[in-house]
Fold these 3 entries.
Entry 1:
Amino acid sequence: MRFFTSVYIILLAYIIAAIVFWEMSLQKLSSRIYDQEVLTLKSRVDSAYDPYTYYRQINSLQHKHIMRRTQYVQEGGAFLVVILIGAVVVYTSLNRRMRLSRQQNNFMLSVTHELKSPIAAMKLNMQTLERRQLSEDQRKQLLDRCIKESNRLNDLCNNMLLASQLEGRQYKQARETFNLSEMAEDCINDYAARYSRRFEEEITAGCKITGDKVMLQMAINNLLENAVKYTPDDLPVTLCLFKNTDGIVIQVQDQGPGIPDSEKKKIFNKFYRIGNEDSRKSKGTGLGLYLTSKIALQHKGRITVKDNAPSGCIFELWLPLS
Ligand code: ADP
């Protein structure tokens, strides 16, 4: 990208220098034409003999000269502005394309890792179960790990499937009225069973909503998954659900590293992950929050993120009641 930018700037500078050079040459040429015209006039009309005709024609030549110079400046300026606008448009669109292709590349790397690592872990656990004589407790532990890994795989496949369906506008959004409080309760219970860490909840009972159950469950799970992934194991993750005047608010609070203000908008972009592939410790695909924001939009709601105190962040999904 840096090489491309340097070559682009050099080319642009060359074009601008060429335009300026041609502009100056034209101005010089115009002055030479004017001088030539004055000489011809002097040879034709004697200023002492017929000053009126002479000064009238000189004035006309001067006027023509000024008009010619102004025309060159205006045309050169317009050309320069068009070139600069074109250059900015080309640069921003190329830049966007290159960024997207880099993110897609990172996505492929992450997805390959995300798909391979649970498969490898399940295979290892199952081989251990097959080859070794284990106690009941050990067998249960290995089976639990297999279930956890297959859940991870399932979540990832669901996210990828929904992303491509939403992209191709193939997803048919269901509309049913259901108890969102019960669903949130189920999500947090599921996470409490999957992870040995502290989960807290403040869920107002009986909040009903009309929408797509599968999508909304996925949105809550994505937020919980991130909170678990980016928060140290000894700190709690909290899920709150309550009604406000015109909608239902779902909050997932964590006490992890938080999200810098400069990244708070970008994290909802497709494939966007904070940092780069080398510096990132936690694995992911950059799809979770993109999908969650799409799901909020499909329900005419919105998702925002703010800082938690003393650390971490609060993701807030607001869904309208009607
Ligand atoms: P993934 O987690 O698979 O990378 P997401 O779209 O879910 O993708 O999140 C995008 C990025 O936002 C993550 O890579 C991470 O850097 C940041 N992020 C999301 N949730 C949190 C959180 N709870 N705490 C800190 N950073 C987060």
Entry 2:
Amino acid sequence: MKIAVFVSGGGTNLQAIIDNTKDGILQDVEIVLVLSSSKEAYALERAADNKIPSVVVSRKDFDSIEKWDDAVVEAVEKSGAELVVLAGYLSLLGPKIVSRYSNRIINIHPALIPSFCGAGMYGIRPHKAALAKGVKVSGATVHFVNENYDEGPILLQKAVDVLPDDTPESLQQRIMKECEWKILPQAIRLIADGRVIIENNICYVR
Ligand code: GRF
């Protein structure tokens, strides 16, 4: 299966996917495109180091959402990707890409949706909110993407204990390492194997 990975920052989730295509559970998956919302994203270095084609499609380079949305669709269609994976991608996708790739876009969110999600809840913020609320577990969620932040059907979740001496940074690191970098490749595997069914906005794995 060919996938396009959308990034905005460090690209550690992209790296987890790359590592699994080399000697893990995704050896029959090809990353045909890395699309970044920012030319500063270190994820672009990771793509270059692994000879993966990349492109920067930044909203601020376009004079309308429609033209930006068209550019995103064009880049993905040209790449031949069958699945779009948002991996640390911070922009809300336009309506055209969402409808053109309906139920073929997944996202990794660093909390157990429906907790600590939605507009503005990205990066360190979900972990700060989790500690402020005093939750005893937190984790990550892979979900299908629709036109609203973090609202599509949930495919996989994985939790870790919140430790008494956790800081937002230590919690973020543990969730990335023990949750995000595991369930995102697992989700791609399930989709590549055709094992995911969505009925009434609920995911079932057969
Ligand atoms: C991670 O916390 C991820 O959950 C969130 O963006 C952050 C950076 O991800 N979506 P990455 O290192 O760029 O993959």
Entry 3:
Amino acid sequence: MTITITAFERSPDGGKGLARDTRVRWVLEEAGLPYNVRPVSFTAMKEPAHLAIHPFGQIPTYEEGDLVLFESGAIIFHVASRHAGLLPDDADARARAIMWMFAGLNTVEPPILELVTVKFTEGDKPWAKDRLPLVRDRIRHRLGQLSARLGDATWLDGAFSAGDLVMVSVLLRTRPSGILDEFPSLAAYVARGEARPAYQRAFAAQLAFNTGAPANG
Ligand code: GTB
């Protein structure tokens, strides 16, 4: 069955891989699944045809026959549930990998998203400059806790899982702010994720899509 995902027609990051189609591309590459990408403009995102598949008018979405999904976490879970190597077979280890997916999306990502809001969406508000350091400190607090849990382990819980895929994708968004590099063990963890061949393919594909450069370099 052909898989089609949606992505920004041109990502505002110019191909740095920070938009959420990259994490979906990554899980599809880990699973060895070919996929098509349908570009969506900011205007088209809010029009009925796209709203019919994504009620919030965003990317990414995932279509596979009659199945239509939105929410990057749900898409990653769907793919990981059906293909070996992304969720452990052992029931308890599987539950923990899913727990880490939720932790990435529900606990680590929210303060990171606040940084984008305060810098860009609210950047011209008089209180933005006072709020920015508070938001940065909230991210540092979370990353400190995560770093303490990771310790010197390679991945969050044994072998690489969809939990790591989500967490690395989330942490990548802290790199432009410089905060990721304040936590060397997390920076190394993210680098291990980025070094995975599937990530490399996903990154190259989104870069090519956003810049017109060839995907294989
Ligand atoms: N919870 C949803 C999910 O995980 O799928 C969130 C989806 C979402 O926020 N999508 C964003 C979107 O469609 C793109 S990824 N925004 C358009 C809109 O809401 O109108 C967020 C994003 C955008 C741009 C960058 N960047 O340029 O660096 C990074 C991340």
